[in-house]
Specification:
Blueprint lengths: L2 H16 L4 H10 L3 H6 L9 H14 L24 H10 L1 H10 L10 H15 L3 E6 L13 E4 L5 E2 L6 E4 L8 H4 L5 E7 L9 H4 L1
Parallel strand pairs: 1-5, 2-4
Antiparallel strand pairs: 2-3
Length: 215
Amino acid sequence: MDTKWVAERFNDFAALECEGSSKLYKTLSEQIAEDHDVLKLCLHVRTGQPIPNLLLGAVHYLLLKGADHELKAFYPSIVNEVKRTDNPFPLFKDFCIENAESIIRLLENRLVQTNEVRRCTYLFPIFCYIYQQTNKPLSLIEIGTSAGLQLLWDQYAYSYDHVQIYGNRESPVHLRSQVREGGIPQNVLSVNPQVHDRLGIDLHISDLTNEEDYL
């Protein structure tokens, strides 16, 4: 693994993972790919781990833990309102240099555990259809569950290309999705499936009652 290979990972991450999802991470990833110092820092990531996720996660983790740095002004999870519109990368790099020892320790010892809650937007219609066909409560098993947030798909609200809201309309989590081709029959979405039980399986469960895992 060398810095050129790592740079390609960040370019891929910016184009494939951040586009339309996180403007902040897209901007940072594109500029990390051009910065030798930050790329060199990434060489401490253990083999097999997704480097962009781990570096960005390590920085976010330290900010959530209370690291006092101007960079936090760019993170909506930390400040009530993001007012900064300038380039965040100079501050990001400064933070990485200033906290290099802590970041390296995280890169060498932590694993990436992700919960892509927005995936529930395509799970919801599928489970609605299965429930309508069987007319029986569903039993769920998720392999690689991490914190198990996708097992709670029936607790979220959903919208597909229009203002109609499906699922749990009272949920604070409202997932919106665009149907690129065809359409979803409205009668499929009109029924909220019942769930009988849920089981998540993972080698490294993220326990959200644990402060470290929660961060």
